[in-house]
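Give me structure tokens for this 222-residue protein.
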Amino acid sequence: MTVISGHEPDLSNGATNNISEPEPLGTDEKSAGGSPGVVGVPTVIAGAIGLGLVNIGALPGGAAGATLAILSTCTAVGLLITTVWAAALGQNASASLFGVFFGFYASYAALVLGLSHDWFGTSAVSATDAQVAWLWCWLITIVVVTLVTLRLPSSLTLQLGLVDVALALLLAGTMSGATSLIRVGGAFVFAFVAVTVYLYADLMFIATGGCGLPLGRPLITR
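Here you go.
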């Protein structure tokens, strides 16, 4: 899962339908710095699809490990590159968002690998508690990120809100042992994927010389 258009918002003149690169980099793909989101966003999509398939039960037993090849290479590495790139361009909000989701995906891969190979000395009985702790940490973190980014276009708020709901359902399902809640959480992961695909289309339309898609007015404009 994640965020992320890869552009910094420019709200100084009340413009809210598109997101533009901060000055002095310019607002189009011809600027020397480029757009980090064109690398980071598709890797988020790939990782989120893998997590969604696991959560809805579409993969066979031991399926959590099936996503590790994507998460630990494509998604984690792609988000790390994107975070560093955005930070180097001075796109602080984008760098923060990409960095948070790099931590999310990389820590998920580490959790699954660690529990599978007993790296952390966690017994099988305590494995569920470890997953609950991980889910609590990231639910709280992403809720905070959602609240502090309400000045971004509303499509990004929707994207983060879907992550919040998915994590809450996964947490409730893990704590109660209710598979149905986990599967509903997986459905919200795919809703997140749909919004992220829309944001990726916006980025690529701009990158290929076209006009960006409407991203919605921010909930907070001051």
